[in-house]
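Quick one, T. Sequence first:
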Amino acid sequence: MATSATGSSAFTRRGLLAATAGTLLLSACGRGEAGADDPATTVAPGGQELLIGVSLELTGPGAALGVIQQRALEITLESLNAKGVPIGNLRRAVRLEVRDNAGDPALAARQATALARDTGVHALLGGTMAETSMALVQVAQKERVPFLSLAFGDGIVLPLAQRTYVYKMTPDAGDMARRLARLIASQRLSRVALLAADGLHGDSGVRAMRGALRTAGVALASATRLPRTGGDFRRAARATAGTRPDGVVVWATAPDSAAAVGALRRAGYDGPVFLDAGAVAEQTLEGGNAALLEGAYAVHPTSLGGAMLANTTMSALERKEFVYRYVQLHGGFSGFAPYASDAVQLIADAARLSTSVDRGRIRAFLQNQVTEGMAGMYSFTPIRHGGMDQGSLGVYTVSAGAWTRVS
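Structure tokens:
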């Protein structure tokens, strides 16, 4: 496939990151285990936990992504608190203050403000929708609380000068767009249409896909925006199908992604469909969606297809345990990226390395973290707060109702 031209450079970069991550983790005596047998490390008294505020879409339009991240958080919290997190000379429990923002940015902002001022959280995470994440961004900057976003949209961490306390767990739009464009070019498709979500996530997708397709020598037949979640997608689907493209890129998060593909099929389009990582959730292939998406492609972190990390890494062992617990609790594991789990672990690592729960020190150590999580490789730097490494992305297709890795 056309990915081979970049495979070697991406592998080399990821290998370098992995080596660096290994050095960092070893210097800290192991992820989540530093000081485990240190007699000077004592259990913190009550009220001295590592406190993290969480704002998720547990109901409303973003629930397809929010609920699965809550499930991931519960599993990771249990694992961390089995021994606690050694921070300085205390071993602290991790406590999550979880709020349901119901997909409402104004509510998310009020909740985050209360968590920062009244509850005194040491960090914030959440916002699987770009709009709720942007509301949380404003609070994080004003209150100077480190915030790890679970949403898609490059504007969450840009411009960097206005996002100094903000980090994004999901892949950058440019990295996903380039993988999709190379895949499209490798299939010798000459004209594709773009059907993009309303809002920041869709804005990032349109901008990134225009540039990536141009570089790949593929013409963009049309770029049509979907209405907000819950709207009627038929008009946008008919307009897209009417351009008679060779392929269609649907750039939207679940549940809009599957709904958009369904509208395209009903509008008479029967060609290939390409999805960004935000499309993938447990809901995406449930019920009749599986038949609608059969043969569709998605670019997604390599956790999707059940691909395990190197068996010798601590991340591989953690992910095996995570999958086991998820299946045990919820009856199955669909391979979604556990961004929230990685976010909690990154915050815990930053607190441990900084030997403090001070917000400013946690932020300082977050922006120098290089580590391999369960979803993929993260490499935050002072000039890059979108940490998912492009080498962590794979190409998948829906085959017999399940995600199968292509490259």
